[in-house]
Structures are given as C-alpha cells and as structure tokens.
Amino acid sequence: MRVNVSRTALIVCAAAAIVATGGANAVVGTADVTAPAVQPSGTGTPAVSTGGDSRSAGTNTSSSSTPAAATASPAVGALFSGGNHFCSASVVHSPAGDLLLTAAHCIGGDVSGVTFKPGYHDGIAPYGTWQVTAAITADGWKSSSDQDLDFAFLKVAQPGSASLESRTGANQLGTNQGFSHTITLTGYPDGTEQPVVCTGTTTQSGTYQQRVACPGFPDGTSGGPWVVNQDPNTGTGTVIGAIGGYQTGGATPDVSYSAYFDDDIARLYSSAIS
Fold first, then answer.
1. Which of helix, strand or coil describes residue 272?
2. What pLDDT was estimated at residue 127?
3. What contacts 112, CB < 8 A, 6 or more positions away?
4. From CA 269, how far away is CA 50, in angstroms rounded?
C-alpha cells in the first residue's frame, strides 16, 4: 500500500500498481486542462449502464497502452484536506447531480474537512470548490476493508442553485461490463498541480479485480476513474473502475488496479441516490 504519511490520519491514500508480467509501453502525459464546454447530462439518460455478468471469465495476463489523451475531463478532480490534495474522484450521473465516485480507502469516518475541486490545475479550481457532505461505502468495506469493495460514493454541496453535474458533466456508472476494455485513466499525483491521463487496455486480475498498465500513477491518483467510450466534446463516458482494490491500487506507479464493478457497486449506487 502506498501511503503519504504527511496526510491527515483519517485519510489513507494509495495509487497505482504492482509490476505487470511482461513489459508495458504506455505513454502518460500531463493533461491539458483547458477543456471544451460541457453540456449537462440530459434527463432520461440511464444512470447505470449494465452489461453481461463475466465474473466467470478467465484471467487475461496481457496488457498494453497507448499515448495519453490530450485533455482531462472537467468531471475529474482532486480531493483536498488541510489545503493539500490527496486522492482523485469523478462526477457520476445522479438525479440530484451531486455524486462523486472515488476509492473507499481514500475516505475515513469524518468527511467534514474534505472538499472536491473538479478540473483542478495549477492552483485553480475552474468549477469551484465543493464540500463533501457524506460518504457511502459498502458494509464489507466497513467491516473488513474487502479489496473487492474498494469504492465509495461521495455527496457534495456548494452554495447556489446549480448542481455540480450541470457545470462539469458526469460519467454514467457501468456495471458488469466485462474485463477487457480500452479506457482513459485520469488521476492527480501528490506533489503535482495537474492531472495525468493515460489510455490503456484493461485485463482481469483475480476473480473481482481488474488492472491496467499505465506508468506514472503514484500516490494521490487513488480513486481516479477508468472511463470507456469517452466523448471528446464533453470528456465524459462510462466509468467501469476507480484506482483501488488490490493493494489499494497497487505497489508501484506502473500498473493500476480496480475492484470489478458488478452488482455490489450497483446496490451501493442505489443506496447513495435514495
């Protein structure tokens, strides 16, 4: 587990990964955060995209990646506590437009001092600073830190009438999508003021774990979304993972892990929006 001991005690933050079998030739770039205008998610759009249940699929040990995307999504941002960012999160479509997805290991019991800055870069929060008001984690994570349940939803608020989602757009939540995808991976490394973005190919790693070879994702990138079918105009798509899971995301910055998004996260999402 990769932990920055200078962070507050309630926050444990780790990021990408264990060294893959075989070489990875991904290229990771520092993102251009001057994103295009984002349209709010339309009403009537399904909040959760479901696919066939592939839990019984065999493990695929190959992995490859391609150069980083040119622009970071405005729906991805950094979580802050005590003036420093420590983990990553992303906006997920919800009826109220106030929901984030991150890794469960990023969040402790008290979230009163945690804020979210979508599209953050170079000390600038172009879409404002949002207070985290609640954290929703699975019972199995609360009781035993089950690595297969290392995901969490956060509710946020800010003075004013506009929702977070109306300003940044949002990813749809994808469940039971299978293990092989080309994804866009985004996260905020500790000690940097810009996100890193990588395009890579996911594979299965364990029964309920998935992985992607993307170098350059150290501490701070935990909670960063794994997005498929990203729209180049809005920067949003369908999120099928978040850096976490095995070894809270991995032991080195070169390969990232995520708990597999199946019925467990679908139930947690239903609880978060109810």
1. helix
2. 96
3. none
4. 13
pLDDT at 61 over 50: no
Inform me whether the pLDDT recorded for 274 exceeds 50.
yes
Length in residues, the chain: 274
pLDDT band at residue 9 using 50, 70 and 90 as cut-offs: very low
Q: Give the tens place of pLDDT for each residue, 230-245.
A: 999 999 999 999 999 9
Stated pTM of the model:
0.79
d(CA 262, CA 4): 30
Tokens of 160: 């004013």
Rounded alpha-carbon distances, angstroms, from residue 57 to 48, 52, 136, 210: 22, 11, 29, 12
- Say which CATH superfamily domain 29-36+61-273 falls into: Trypsin-like serine proteases (2.40.10.10)
What's the pLDDT tens digit per position in 153-169?
A: 999 999 888 999 999 99
Model pLDDT, residue 44 = 32
Torsion angle, CA of 261/182/243/56, rounded to 10 degrees? 40
Written as six digits, the tokens of 16 are: 């990408």
Distance between start and end Cα atoms, the chain: 33
Residue 212 burial (10 A CB sphere; 0-12, 13-18, 19+) = buried
C-alpha 273, offset from chain centre: 18
Q: How far apart are CA 80 and CA 64, in angstroms?
A: 32
Phi-psi region of 166 (alpha: psi -120 to 50; beta: other; left: phi over 0): alpha
Provide the 8-state DSSP code for 179: S
Residue 273's SS3 state is helix
Tokens for 269, please give them. Answer: 């999402």
- E strand or H helix at 143: helix 139-144
Q: Give the whole-angstrom CA distance, residue 119 versus residue 124.
A: 8
User: Strand, coil or helix: what is 246?
Assistant: helix
Domain boundaries, the chain: 29-36+61-273
